[in-house]
Amino acid sequence: MAKRVTLAEVAAQAGVSPITVSRALRRPDTVQPDTRARIDAAVAALGYVPDPAARALATGRADVIGVLIPSATNAVFTDVLTGLYDELSETRFDLQYGITRYEPATEEKLLGVFLRQRPAGLIVAGIDQTPAARRLLERADCPVVQVMETGPDPVDMMVGFSHHDAAAAATRHLIAQGYRNPGFLGARMDPRTQRRFAGFRAEAEAGGVFDPERCETTPVPSSVGGGAALLRALMTRRPETDAVFCNNDDLAMGALFEAMRMGFPVPERLGICGFNDLEMMHAAEPALTSVRTNRFEMGVRAARMIRARLDGRDPGPALIDLKPQVQARRSTGGPS
Amino acid sequence: MAKRVTLAEVAAQAGVSPITVSRALRRPDTVQPDTRARIDAAVAALGYVPDPAARALATGRADVIGVLIPSATNAVFTDVLTGLYDELSETRFDLQYGITRYEPATEEKLLGVFLRQRPAGLIVAGIDQTPAARRLLERADCPVVQVMETGPDPVDMMVGFSHHDAAAAATRHLIAQGYRNPGFLGARMDPRTQRRFAGFRAEAEAGGVFDPERCETTPVPSSVGGGAALLRALMTRRPETDAVFCNNDDLAMGALFEAMRMGFPVPERLGICGFNDLEMMHAAEPALTSVRTNRFEMGVRAARMIRARLDGRDPGPALIDLKPQVQARRSTGGPS
DNA sequence: TCATCTAATGATAGCGCTGTCATCGTAGCC
DNA sequence: GGCTACGATGACAGCGCTATCATTAGATGA
């Protein structure tokens, strides 16, 4: 094991006091240029790296940004992570992740784990924290960003979009394309899914084409296979269904394959619309319509807001709405 | 901000010295039952949570397990993460991730970042570390597990499989099914991809069916759209190709869609085999053959090995080979 | 009964760093 | 020339915890 080099050793080598080395490293403009040069040389010569634990203890603050997401395997969240990572990887901040498994209680617990480290910032997915978690977030004396979603009452800052409105826009598209018997496919039915369903329902009702019997849902997590099963169940029960708004792209992909198996031409007999616009959607045959959500951008913006606040700069508006767009493709080309 | 409660305050409340509280928390069997009870009550009453930074500074060791993976969006790695998480979430250990972006230099740098925290353990993807990174790992005085892959020269412990052999098995399957002009589709071409290609090549040559002109690769990261493009290029240049071994499932899915567009029936005109066996493979139409890799299990095992070592238990064999299996499905049903 | 051992608890010091205030020297000014 | 003001550097203490050794009380045995 390489021996640990301390500030004191660097200081001795540079012929200054430890505190001056500390300053030279953190606020280089507060030490004389030649002093700084001697210190830099000593740091390089000894291969000094600061001890994050010691710093955290002395400052009462860790250079860690905690991220709470429901799932590590759902592409929707990993895209946000990638955005965060991109924006933070060259800074002094480390990211630490917690996976809530869509369980509010787990989220609350992980929040406690993070908070005891006195993180520099906190990023949480969604707006559905428990009252206790919400209180913890409000009392956390660090910037907090809620991502994935916008809502009426930010804890601090927010980057996301309205799932209700996005689903409504997709539904509007289906109706505009001429589908008159649209259905809904949903899995897991977590709060965001529910809000998408509400958007679908509101718009379908407005268009006079809503039928609760054409809504097929399951509490199970979504998957391609699950989408296939849901579509089969729906088409068996309600054969008049001529389009489906799927709660996410996996379900839509499964619906496409099942439509093939059932011999329903897409889009003529059945229109299919997904949600999130993962890369695979445009490559499918036929290409699948979806709602493009700016997940990577969400991560980048969230990281930037936190950085701005920590650096004392203006973080800009506290609520950023990254409006999604319906990517119309062949799978919703209209009924024949 | 909730005021921080310290060990000393708990000690005062319980009428013991701070060090006894520390012991009661870390090794409950070393304090009297009634003392312990008083301390537990005080901890609960005050809502005490230990400060990880102070502990790390005092012990010279952080309860953090560092994980280095190439990508946060590739399902292959996130499945491993989920396994790790499952096994470690109820322990005192936190996971900290670093994304190497498939760049050895980034891996080396992140290793330095992790090491300065004196992590309790380290998990790295693959066996292709730079010499400097390898040296760092060897000198790290903590358990190290290389995951995703097996190789001849473990730094410490290893959980994975032979990508060469797995690809060879898939190729053997194609040949056994009667395909005589198999091709290869590959993207990114990182070291693991290269070894899969080598496995394909070795087996195809052994069967007398290898043709380098039937290998279509790109340095670009893999995607469904990319798989479609690769298949189109291959079939245009080498129309006699009657099957493709795709380096991963995204490419296979893209190849399937492109085969549809080109009017090639799968599996009669074109057999398709993927790699990893993501969930979507079984749900496709036709269902896609793939090589099932035990990614979740890899994460679980890696975490267990590290825990065993840290707890002084026997970690079992230092090298675990989680042999993948070819999941034969309709997409390789054989040529007509 | 007394030395000896063991289990339980405590006192002390220090992990590596930074916040706070003190000190020093020098420039600028009347 | 003497004063203030300010920039650069340093001394000191302490963040919250644990390693180490010391101490105490009780158990054990001759």
Automatic annotation (TrEMBL), chains A, B:
<dbReference type="Pfam" id="PF00356">
    <property type="entry name" value="LacI"/>
</dbReference>
<dbReference type="InterPro" id="IPR028082">
    <property type="entry name" value="Peripla_BP_I"/>
</dbReference>
<dbReference type="InterPro" id="IPR000843">
    <property type="entry name" value="HTH_LacI"/>
</dbReference>
<dbReference type="InterPro" id="IPR010982">
    <property type="entry name" value="Lambda_DNA-bd_dom_sf"/>
</dbReference>
<dbReference type="GO" id="GO:0003700">
    <property type="term" value="F:DNA-binding transcription factor activity"/>
</dbReference>
<keyword id="KW-0805">Transcription regulation</keyword>
<dbReference type="Pfam" id="PF13377">
    <property type="entry name" value="Peripla_BP_3"/>
</dbReference>
<feature type="domain" description="HTH lacI-type">
    <location>
        <begin position="5"/>
        <end position="59"/>
    </location>
</feature>
<dbReference type="InterPro" id="IPR046335">
    <property type="entry name" value="LacI/GalR-like_sensor"/>
</dbReference>
<protein>
    <submittedName>
        <fullName>LacI family DNA-binding transcriptional regulator</fullName>
    </submittedName>
</protein>
<dbReference type="GO" id="GO:0000976">
    <property type="term" value="F:transcription cis-regulatory region binding"/>
</dbReference>
<keyword id="KW-0804">Transcription</keyword>
<keyword id="KW-0238">DNA-binding</keyword>
